[in-house]
Design goal:
Blueprint: E1 6-8, E2 18-20, E3 24-25, H1 38-51, E4 55-57, H2 66-75, E5 84-89, E6 91-95, E7 112-116, H3 120-134, E8 141-145, H4 149-166, H5 169-178, E9 184-189, H6 192-199, E10 206-210, H7 224-231, E11 234-238, H8 245-248, E12 255-256, E13 259-260, H9 263-278, H10 283-289, E14 297-301, H11 307-318, H12 323-331
Parallel strand pairs: 3-4, 4-5, 5-8, 8-9, 9-10, 10-11, 11-14
Antiparallel strand pairs: 1-2, 6-7, 12-13
Helix pairs in contact: 1-2, 1-11, 3-5
InterPro entries: AKR, NAD(P)_OxRdtase_dom_sf, NADP_OxRdtase_dom
Organism: Yoonia maricola
Protein name: D-threo-aldose 1-dehydrogenase
Length: 349
C-alpha cells in the first residue's frame, strides 16, 4: 500500500488539503509520559516520512512547545510542498515561575504555563507563536484546541464558545483562511458533541476527533457523521485505540479513555478480540482501519514515539482484513449494524 496516496479533507477549501490516510500525531514528541532525546525524535519523524506519511499534526500544548520545535527541525529536511501540517490554537504559552509550569502529562518541559484564550487576540497570538516555533508560515490547518466540556466543564464550554464568537476568535480564524495564510479551520477535541455544536454555529472545514468513533464507540453515526457528509466536513481520527485498550487488548491494567478500563469494556474487548482471532486478524489492525470505513473519516493518526512504533503502525495499517470479520462483528452485536466498514483492504480502497 502506498501511504502517500491522499484523500481531500473536503472539496470546499480554497487550497486543497490532501491527507494521507495514515497520519502522524506529534504529542509523543512533546515528551508525553517520558523524555525522548532529540535524535530519537528526529529519527521517528524521518521514519514517518520515509514510510510515505504526509500528514503531520502538532500543538503548542505538546511539551509546552517542544513538539512544534522538533517538527520545525524536520521541516528543514522534508519537502514542505508535499506534506500537510496542522497545529492548534487557543492555548497561549507564557513564561512563568518554576512552580507555575503546567506540564500536564509531559515531562522535561520548558518553563511555561498555559493560558486558554479563544479571543481574536488569543487566536492571533497563538498562531504567530506557532509560526515562530515551527519556522514556517505554511500551516495548512488550524484547530481550536480542547474547547469542549471535557477540558472546561459544561459551563466552561458555554463560556469558551461565547469567547470564540463574541470576542473575535472565530473572526480571526476566518481572516487567516480568507487571506490564504491557512487552508482550513476546525477543532481538535475529545467529544463529537462540541463538533456538532460548532457546525451549528459557523463554517468549519474539518475536525480532529480523539476517539469517539472506534470499535467501541459509534454514537456519532446518529447525527454527527451524517451532518459531516452533508456539509462536506472531513474528520481526522486520533486515538483509534481509545487510549490503549484496543491496542493492548483486555489485559490487566488496560486503559480506556485515559483511565483503567471498567469491567463492561473489558468484557466487550475480550469478545472483539475473539472474533478478530477467529479471522487471524490482530485486534489492533481492525481498530486502526475501522474508522476509515466511513466516508467522512479522511485520516487516522495513532501515536508513535519511536521509529519502531511508526513502522509498527504502518504494518498494522497495511494488514489485509477479511470482509467476513466485519460482518461477524455486526452479527455478534459488537459494532453497530449501520456502521460502514472497509469491505476491501484499505490499500484497495
Amino acid at each position: 500500500m502506498d501511504l502517500s496516496t491522499t484523500h481531500p479533507l473536503n472539496l470546499r477549501t480554497q487550497t486543497p488539503v490532501n491527507l494521507s490516510q495514515l497520519g502522524f500525531g506529534g504529542a509523543p514528541l512533546g515528551n508525553l509520559y517520558r523524555k525522548i532525546e532529540e535524535h530519537e525524535a528526529q529519527a521517528t519523524l524521518d521514519a514517518a516520512w520515509n514510510a510515505g506519511i504526509r500528514y503531520f499534526d502538532t500543538a503548542p500544548q505538546y511539551g509546552l512547545g517542544r513538539s512544534e520545535l522538533r517538527m520545525a527541525e524536520a521541516l528543514r529536511r522534508f519537502d514542505r510542498n508535499a506534506m500537510i501540517l496542522s497545529t492548534k490554537v487557543g492555548r497561549v504559552l507564557e513564561d512563568c515561575a518554576p512552580e507555575d509550569v503546567t506540564p500536564e502529562a509531559f515531562v522535561d518541559v520548558p518553563q511555561k504555563r498555559i493560558v486558554f484564550d479563544y479571543t481574536y487576540d488569543g487566536i492571533m497570538r497563538s498562531y504567530a507563536d506557532s509560526i515562530a516555533r515551527l519556522g514556517t508560515d505554511q500551516i495548512d490547518m488550524l484547530f481550536l484546541h480542547d474547547i469542549d466540556a471535557g477540558t472546561h466543564g459544561a459551563a466552561g464550554e458555554d463560556e469558551k464558545l461565547r469567547e470564540l464568537f463574541s470576542r473575535g476568535g472565530y473572526r480571526a480564524l476566518t481572516e487567516l483562511r480568507e487571506a490564504g495564510q491557512i487552508a482550513a479551520i476546525g477543532a481538535g477535541v475529545n467529544t463529537w458533541q462540541i463538533c456538532e455544536r460548532l457546525l451549528g454555529e459557523a463554517d468549519f472545514d474539518g475536525f480532529l476527533l480523539a476517539g469517539r468513533y472506534t470499535l467501541l464507540e459509534q454514537d456519532p453515526l446518529e447525527t454527527f457523521l451524517p451532518l459531516c457528509v452533508q456539509r462536506d466536513v472531513g474528520i481526522i481520527l486520533g486515538g483509534p485505540y481509545n487510549s490503549g485498550i484496543l491496542a493492548t487488548g483486555a489485559v490487566e491494567g488496560a486503559r480506556y479513555d485515559y483511565a483503567p478500563a471498567p469491567p463492561d469494556i473489558l468484557e466487550r474487548v475480550h469478545k472483539l478480540d475473539a472474533v478478530c482471532a477467529a479471522h487471524d486478524t490482530p485486534l489492533i489492525a481492525a481498530a486502526l482501519q475501522f474508522p476509515l470505513g466511513h466516508g467522512a473519516v479522511k485520516s487516522v493518526i495513532p501515536g508513535g514515539a519511536t521509529p519502531q512504533e511508526v513502522r509498527q503502525n504502518v504494518d498494522i495499517f497495511q494488514t489485509k482484513i477479511p470482509p467476513a470479520l466485519w460482518s461477524d462483528l455486526k452479527s455478534e452485536g459488537l459494532i453497530r449494524h449501520d456502521a460502514p466498514v472497509p469491505m476491501r483492504p484499505v490499500d484497495a480502497a
